[in-house]
Amino acid sequence: MRKWEENVRRVVPYTPGEQPKKERMIKLNTNENPYPPAPEVAKLLQSFDVTQLRRYPDPSIGDLIREIAAFYQVEPEQVFAGVGSDDVLAMIFLTFFNSKLPVLFPDITYSFYDVWARLLGVAYETVPLDERFLIRAQDYNRPCGGVIFPNPNAPTGELLPLETVETIIRQNQDVIVVVDEAYIDFGGKSALPLIDRYDNLLVVQTFSKSRSLAGSRIGYAFGSRKLIRYLNDVKYSFNSYTLDRLSIAIGACAIRDRAYFEETTQKVIAAREWTKQELSRLGFVFGDSMSNFIFATHPQIPAVQLFEDLKKADIYVRHFQQPERIQNYLRISIGTMEEMQELISFLQQYKQ
Ligand code: PMP
């Protein structure tokens, strides 16, 4: 080992899902939306004035933040935006998780949380989900350095009722509670209205799933003015120009089309419910996902084997090696109805 290596900040990085470069495939491995972004986005790109790219973007991301605030009927000062919710979450870890007491999150959850915690040297402790993969509010009723969990949870898809979310927030008013709502638009009830009652609450959402814009990297958080100010102070101390000009314009344009958003999320929900029925018929076991994916296992079919065989048929799903409790599960994102039909016919033949 070279001397300088002693001082390298070493990390075990997060592993993103595969992005194969194939024309024809059924891609159900990274919870993307199967539908294109709102139609106005294409028009915007066609008429976008490229000379604008000469200049830095607006560091305050004003145009996008004003549209988000208008859509959700909050004040722009209650909104923070970043390069995907990953960036927003990383800034939240950096800003608010700075206690000697451990930050709490579920043992089975978004696998980026422990990566940020380790990168930043944040103390953390994972809290086991119950045997049905559910979060229990009482497990989060103890002194800690903060709480973060996705709702619906990933990769389980399980939705926590808003009353239980509120219980967790109420129990933890001395620390910051982060509700990561990446998948909330597929059937859940957002904790957003609670930001007026709890000044320690941050609600994080993204354009990557329900708004079909994973490729533009746009995420945002809602919270009290004070929390958003603290977040911006850290953001401006790290990288003041986060979202680029194009993403700001795309996001501001996409969020105006409420009808398209509702139509496409409803289509994803319908395909999910159909897929649940068919998977049940085939003997798969899974929770009642309220997200745009289903986390399923089969008592007779080893998950890794099925994962590999699906891939050979150009159907990509996600398998997690860790933790052990979920090794025999596959996370299947919801595509178009046609894609789900193809998946189900593959599985029908596979079983015979
Ligand atoms: N939170 C959860 C629970 C997720 O599953 C994801 C998607 N990988 C993210 C946040 C980050 O999404 P993005 O950065 O695309 O907004």
Describe this structure in words.
The chain has 352 residues and is an alpha/beta fold. It has 2 domains: 26-37 and 259-351, Aspartate Aminotransferase, domain 1; 39-257, Type I PLP-dependent aspartate aminotransferase-like (Major domain) (Aspartate Aminotransferase, domain 2), CATH 3.40.640.10. The chain is 34% helix and 13% strand.
Short description:
With 352 residues, the chain is α/β, with parallel strands linked by helices.
Please specify the SSE layout and strand pairing.
Blueprint: E1 26-27, H1 39-47, H2 62-72, E2 79-82, H3 84-96, E3 103-106, H4 113-120, E4 124-127, E5 146-150, H5 162-171, E6 177-180, E7 201-206, E8 219-222, H6 225-235, H7 245-254, H8 258-281, E9 285-286, E10 293-297, H9 303-312, E11 315-316, E12 329-333, H10 337-351
Parallel strand pairs: 1-11, 3-4, 3-5, 5-6, 6-7
Antiparallel strand pairs: 2-8, 7-8, 9-10, 10-12
Helix pairs in contact: 1-7, 2-7, 3-4, 3-6, 8-10
The protein binds 4'-deoxy-4'-aminopyridoxal-5'-phosphate.
Question: What would the keywords be for this entry?
Answer:
binds 4'-deoxy-4'-aminopyridoxal-5'-phosphate, seven-stranded mixed beta sheet, alpha/beta, 13% strand, 34% helix, 352 residues, Aspartate Aminotransferase, domain 1, three-stranded antiparallel beta sheet, Aspartate Aminotransferase, domain 2
